[in-house]
Structures are given as structure tokens and as C-alpha cells.
Amino acid sequence: HPDDLPRVAEETRRFDRLDDRDVLDHEIRFRHADGSYRWLRCRDAVFERDADGRATRVIGTAQDVTDRKAH
Q: What pLDDT, on the 0 to 100 scale, is given for residue 50?
């Protein structure tokens, strides 16, 4: 969602500072194939880093929580 872009950019940068044991838990809107936006709860962790410690691969899950957000 366009309103979420600044927050997404900041969360992406957080991966480089995230401890390897930590999970980044956040909710964000994504555009569905039908054009509507759906809320997803994402839980992501750094899977691999480069020699400088920057995150190069992230692994995670996403759960649709749109109905919960509507109530």
C-alpha cells in the first residue's frame, strides 16, 4: 500500500541490524489479485548475511489478518 512504503523501507533496513535470533514481526498491506488491499502479518528473520554482516537472504511467513483488522 502506498501509505506503508516509508515504514516498509525502514523495516527492510532493520534486517541489517537484527540479531540472528530475532524475528521481525509486522503487519502491512499488499495488493490482492482482485485489486483490493489485504493486511498480512509477516514474521521474518535473517537467513543469510554477506561478509560485512548485511542481510542478503530473509526467510519468513505471511498470514492474512484482514478480517481481524476489520473488527
A: 96
CA distances, 16 to each of 32, 41, 49, 66 (Å):
29, 20, 8, 29
Instruction: Report the C-alpha gap between 39 and 15 in whole angstroms.
Output: 21
CB-based contacts of 39: which residues, under 8 Å, 6+ apart?
27, 28, 29, 64, 65, 66, 68, 69
Chunk the chain into consecutive blocks of 10 residues (it has 71) and report each block's average pLDDT, rounded to whole numbers.
Answer: 91 90 94 96 96 95 93 75
pLDDT at site 69:
86
- Reduced to 3 states (helix: H, G, I; strand: E, B; else coil), residue 7 is helix
Q: Letter for the amino acid at 61?
A: T
User: In what helix (H) or strand (E) does residue 61 lie, and over which residues does it extend?
Assistant: strand 55-64
The x, y and z cell numbers of residue 53, run together, are 554482516
Nearest of 38, 28, 33 to residue 4 by alpha carbon: 28
